[in-house]
Amino acid sequence: MPDFTPTVTLVPDHRELLLADEVELRRRIPADIPEIIRLDQWHHPYLLQDTRG
Predict the structure, then answer these.
(1) pLDDT of 39
(2) d(CA 42, CA 25)
(3) 10 near 18, Cβ under 8 Å?
(4) DSSP letters along the chain, please?
(5) pTM
(6) For the stretch 16-47, what's the b/e string if a residue is b when 16 or more beta carbons lie within 10 angstroms of its beta carbon?
(7) What are the residues whose beta carbons fall under 8 Å from the beta carbon of 29, sequence distance 6 or more?
(8) pLDDT at 46
(9) Distance of alpha carbon 50 from alpha carbon 41, whole angstroms
(10) pLDDT at residue 36 in the model
């Protein structure tokens, strides 16, 4: 299982560097495909945290 902790700690100060900009998105998604939804904010609980004490 990958550990996303380093990425999560970078988000508060470097969010714009972690999200794809329009040019990066269009490299992967052709311009003739309409954008239906873009999720730039989300809540992702840290489910892999060891809670055994």
Answers:
(1) 82
(2) 18
(3) yes
(4) ----HHHHHHHHHHHHHHS--HHHHHHHS-TTSPP-----------TT-----
(5) 0.49
(6) eeeeeeeeeeeeeeeeeeeeeeeeeeeeeeee
(7) 35
(8) 65
(9) 25
(10) 92
**Would you say 50 and 43 are in contact if contact means Cβ atoms under 8 Å apart?**
no
Q: Which of 8, 16, 13 is nearest to 47 (CA)?
A: 8
Contact in structure between 19 and 41 (CB atoms under 8 Å): no
The tens place of each residue's pLDDT in the chain, 53 residues long, gives 567 677 778 878 888 888 888 899 889 988 899 989 888 777 767 666 655 55
d(C-alpha 24, C-alpha 30), whole Å: 11
Give Dmax (Cα) for the chain: 52
